[in-house]
Amino acid sequence: MYYKLISYQKQSYKGKSYFFIWLAITNLMLLLSVNYASLCQNVVNNGDNIVITNGANLFISGNYTNFSSNGDGKIDLDGKIIINKNWINNATGNVFTNVEPIPDGYVVLRGALPQFIGGSYSTHFENLSLENSQKTLQETNCEVKGILTLDAVLDLNKKKIILNNNSPTAINYISKYILSESSPLDNYSEVQWNIGSSANTYKVPFGSGTTNNNDLELVLSTRTSGHPSSGSISFATYPADCYNDVLPTDVISLNHDASAVANRYWIINPDYSISKPDIDIVFQYTTKDVDTCNQNIIQENLKAIRYNTSLMTWNDMHSSGQANVNSKTVSVRNVMQNDFYAPWTLIDDESFLYVPNAFTPNDDNKNDFFGPVGIDLVKYTFAMRIFDRWGNMIFKTENINLLWNGKPTGSDKFATNGVYIWKITLSDGYNNERNYNGTVTLLR
Prior knowledge:
Blueprint: E1 2-13, E2 16-26, E3 30-32, E4 36-45, E5 49-52, E6 57-60, E7 64-66, E8 74-77, E9 80-83, E10 87-89, E11 106-109, E12 115-119, E13 124-125, E14 127-131, E15 135-137, E16 142-144, E17 148-151, E18 154-155, E19 160-163, E20 171-175, E21 178-179, E22 190-193, E23 201-204, E24 206-207, E25 218-222, E26 232-239, E27 264-271, E28 279-284, H1 287-291, E29 303-306, E30 322-324, E31 329-335, E32 343-347, E33 353-354, E34 358-359, E35 373-374, E36 381-387, E37 393-397, E38 418-427, E39 433-442
Parallel strand pairs: 2-4, 3-5, 4-6, 4-7, 5-8, 6-9, 7-10, 9-11, 10-12, 11-14, 12-15, 13-16, 14-17, 15-18, 16-19, 17-20, 18-21, 19-22, 21-24, 34-39
Antiparallel strand pairs: 1-2, 22-26, 23-25, 25-28, 26-27, 27-32, 28-31, 29-32, 30-31, 33-35, 36-37, 36-38, 38-39
């Protein structure tokens, strides 16, 4: 066994003893014991074991690199590794060994300048704390078994991070956000949460990057248990343009007028081979998602829709949810497991239908007919009924192109001036029915 010792010094600082070490490790077991800390400029592990016991800290002012040419470097971590630059793993085996059922080792990325987690292979951290500057994920499928503490921006960078902990506290949110924001053209930037069969509430602190906080926080509550217990849910979100391009993976078309749809998609992908959980969801959106080119959106009317990737349609489930304009959220309850598919977006499907409150059927070719005006009404089965003030039905049509001309059915005379009641029903091909009603004034 040998190692290259570049420099070595023992000093006291704030009442504690520190080893100041500059080294490259080769065929060496480095043991850091309790009550001591070591400060290194850079650490390169060329295939051996580092043991950091409970209470011991290893401070690395440069990079930690797991080198791959002569072996698979390991760290048995019960203390802390605090790094000011980058974490680089070029060895198989995911780095950490002897991980406890409740992991007690911490890697802290604390640099004031941007840092990355990268290398040729993923790292499976026990606990990971991100502080100060922005951190970028450069290798996919990195995993945190214990707790991910977020006190910095985490740019997923078209990669996936895995939370292998079914507790809602697997993300300890302090500040900043997780940046997703990549479309399927570039690969989703995903958080995979291995929640298994747990029934709880999970918060993913996504952010748009236009503010310094989690302005796209996504909240999912599992109302029932999914099965098997090895199941997971993956989360991502990304902005779309004014035409709502680019569509999510497996989505053929939007099938709605883009001006009434938020310019953002959410991906909430359940991976359960037996049964998915029933869920509630709270979507948070930004002003840019609904104001840029969405002249047909009234935020109070926003609801959520999702795409059924088996039936290839958005329309087999009612739009649903309660909008809160102040918090810019839409809360959706009681999504049953059979309705739980990955692609979601928000829509104002109330404002697409306009019904005038008066008309003048006097054969001047101006406002002579009464009926709804809207976007894509031909996609629906349509029925409209008109009632007088005594509740008698005087007109009915099931043809969107044959509206009320002011005459009762079977009569060649106009109805008298006054207020009439209308009821409109729209239904799609999946037995989803929408009912509207109101009054209209006939003036001649």
